[in-house]
Amino acid sequence: MATEKVFEVLDERALNALAHPLRQRLLVLLRSDGSATATRLAERVDESSGVTSYHLRRLADVGLVVEDRDRGTKRERWWRSAYDVTQWSPSIFLGNPEAHRTSVRMRREIHRWQWRLLERWLAEESEWDKAWVDAAGLSDSLLTMTPESLRAMSEEIWAVMQRYHANPAPADAPDVARVVWLQHLIPIRGELPL
Q1: Among 110, 127, 144, where does a domain finish?
Q2: 118 plus 181 within the same structural domain
Q3: CB under 8 Å to 135, separation ≥6 — which residues?
């Protein structure tokens, strides 16, 4: 079972590199589709190769992407993600108002991407086989917890997801598809907002 390589965002430099929406998209593409050139990525994100090249270098400056030297040539520079997962705790930036605002801005962009993904699923759902529609999930629950029990639950759920990640269905299996797993654990004050 392979262990995922995790990039921990611990400083403002890495946070600022990740906060740009285009850089987030480039990183997602490199992680989901594998190595690519700035030109190929530019086509996917509808930008110029100069723009994607610039943003790839900013990601490389903090170690999130690296050159894929096995694929590159003197004329063509290939990039790959250096890590499988990016993690950070917004709490480490609470004492720094500017860094915390950047962290909030970055998470808002991630939430927008997740919303676009959910909207796409709803738009395409009728085109999927009934088995996939039944298996695709949406749920919520209101729990009463402490920070410690919430963290413990999150870690247990993460471990289950990692178990499935480490043992994927064969790519040539019938009716195989990639699945995005999303998790939001949000404390609330007072009444449940509706």
Answers
A1: 127
A2: no
A3: none
Look up the CATH number of the domain holding residue 57.
1.10.10.10
According to the model, what pLDDT value does residue 71 have?
85
**For residue 48, what are its two tokens?**
């110029």
β-pairing, 36-37 with 78-81?
antiparallel
Helix (H) or strand (E) holding 86: strand 85-87
Q: Return the H-helix or E-strand segment holding 22.
A: helix 21-33
Shared domain check, 94 and 42: yes
How many domains does the chain fold into?
2
User: Do 179 and 96 reside in the same domain of the chain?
Assistant: no
E strand or H helix that includes residue 107:
helix 97-124
**pLDDT tens-digit map of 100-137:** 999 999 999 999 999 999 999 999 999 999 999 999 98
Contact between 13 and 62 (Cβ < 8 Å): yes
Distances (CA, A) of 38 to 130, 135, 185: 38, 36, 35
Domain that holds residue 105: 6-127
The alpha carbon dihedral of 145, 150, 152, 153 has a sign of positive
